[in-house]
Design brief:
By secondary structure, this protein is mainly alpha-helical. It has eight helices and four strands; from the N terminus they run ααααααββααββ.
Amino acid sequence: QDRRHRDGRLDAGLFALAVGLIGARVVQVLANWDYYVERPQQILALNDGGLSFHGGFLIGVAALALFVILQRQTQRRTTLIVLVGALTVPLALGLMGGWLGCLLAGCAYGRAAPLPPRFYTPDWPDLYGVHAFRLPSQAFGLALAATLLIAALLLSRRPGLWLILLGAGDFLIAWTRGDLTIRWGPLLATQ
C-alpha cells in the first residue's frame, strides 16, 4: 500500500477540502448577512459572492484536527502538523487560483489611489462599477501565493514557518484592499 493511504493523508486532505469549502461559503454568507437575508435564494449560488478564504482555512484546519482525533481510535495514526505540512502545496495552489479568480472577476479589489506613478492597476471598475486607479491587491495576492508555493516546496517539513508567511502576507495585503469594510478597531476583519 502507498504510504499516503496508510497514514491517512489523502483521506484527511479530501475531508478537509470538503468541510473547508462548506465552511468557506458559510463564513462568506455570515460576513455579508445583511445582503443574503434579503436574497436567501443566493446563499447557495457560489458564483455570486464566492467563498471566504479565512473561513475555509480555519474550518478546514478544524476538520483536520477532528480527523486526527477520530483517527486515534483506529490503527492509523498521524499528527496535525504532518497533515498541515502535506497540504501546504495544495493550499498554495488553491490560494493562487483564488487570487487569479479575483483578478478576473474584479473581487478583492484594491483601494482607490491617486493617479499612478507606478504599482497601480489600470482604471478598472470594482464590483459596483466604480472606475478608479487602484492598488493591485490581486497581483500582490498572486505574488504571495507564488512565494508560498516556493516556500511550501522548500519548507515541507516546517509547516509552522509556512503558516507564519501566509499570515504575515495576508495581513499586509489586507491594508491594500478596498473591498473590506468590517473593522475591529484599527484592524480589518481579515487581519
